[in-house]
Design brief:
255 residues; alpha/beta; Cobalt-precorrin-4 Transmethylase, domain 1; 2 domains; five-stranded parallel sheet; 10 strands; 20% strand; binds S-adenosyl-L-homocysteine; methyltransferase
């Protein structure tokens, strides 16, 4: 690390979408020095743990509830150990950092966050696409289907679909049929392109392509139930316009 480590705090580190080379250098260095690592086993590539010292204690949080996770962190900090909480993608999306931070605060322990590459970025890279395409779409909606965690009514898929912009839908592939139905009900034409990216940036990544009319069947046939993103919108289609940014007639000031 180029800055001094503060062992009185827990380091939350974004692990990236899967490829062990897609963690940040800061995250990598923290893993190299960590004494205690608590990782989300269902989504973290175990190859990342190879960066740790052989004597580091690594705990899979899939088997732990919140209080057990917090206890491991507190015990580590009290023993002057470097504690790293490794979470998939970036921490700022569906990361539940807040609740862990609140619990740590009750024990007078602070935390630092190290950004990661979110899976929606890994998925775009796999596909070699941009969510923003001149004159086609200039916005990206990141959302999920309502599940055990409800979504506010103003953020329902049906309402968002009215914008017909680019969408990256997390945590919802198990309900792909309902997702496609709601998006059509909300306003996307049935021929809108959809890509489902399973395990973006992992060696066993799968990319399924279709439209809102047929993607549910394709995903069901492939048996994909989790660890996938549903990407929707005309940014995946054929229409494209060159950007003004590199236009010979355009001022250089923003390049
Ligand atoms: N903080 C994470 C998201 C955690 S929620 C991030 O920034 O990516 C977990 C959901 O993220 C999964 O259900 C899936 O929808 C998505 N996800 C995580 N890793 C993925 C990957 N490698 N490929 C596709 N989707 C992924």
């Amino acid at each position: 690390m180029t800055e001094t480590l503060d062992k009185s705090k827990v380091y939350f580190v974004g692990a990236g979408p899967g490829d062990p080379e897609l963690i940040t250098l800061k995250g990598y260095r923290l893993l190299q020095q960590a004494d205690v690592v608590i990782y989300a086993g269902s989504l973290i590539n175990p190859a990342l743990l190879d960066y740790c010292k052989p004597e580091a204690e690594c705990h899979d949080s899939a088997y732990l509830h919140l209080q057990q996770i917090i206890q491991l962190m507190v015990d580590g900090i009290h023993h002057n150990k470097l504690v790293v909480r490794l979470q998939t993608g970036d921490l700022s999306l569906y990361g539940s950092v807040r609740e862990q931070g609140e619990e740590l605060a009750k024990q007078q322990i602070g935390f630092r966050c190290i950004a990661g590459v979110s899976s929606f970025l890994g998925a775009a890279a796999e596909l070699g696409v941009e969510y923003t395409v001149p004159e086609v779409s200039q916005s990206l909606i990141i959302t999920r289907m309502a599940g055990r965690t409800p979504t506010p009514e103003l953020e329902s898929l049906i309402r968002f679909a009215g914008h017909q912009t680019s969408m990256a839908i997390f945590l919802s592939v198990q309900g792909i049929g309902a997702v496609a139905e709601q998006l059509v009900q909300g306003g996307y034409p049935t021929e809108t392109p959809v890509s489902v990216v399973y395990k973006a940036t992992w060696p066993d990544c799968q990319i399924l392509k279709g439209t809102l009319a047929d993607i549910a069947q394709t995903v069901t046939d492939a048996g994909i139930q989790k660890t996938a993103l549903i990407l929707v919108g005309r940014f995946l289609g054929e229409e494209y316009h060159y950007s003004k940014l590199y236009d010979a007639a355009f001022s250089h000031e923003y390049r």
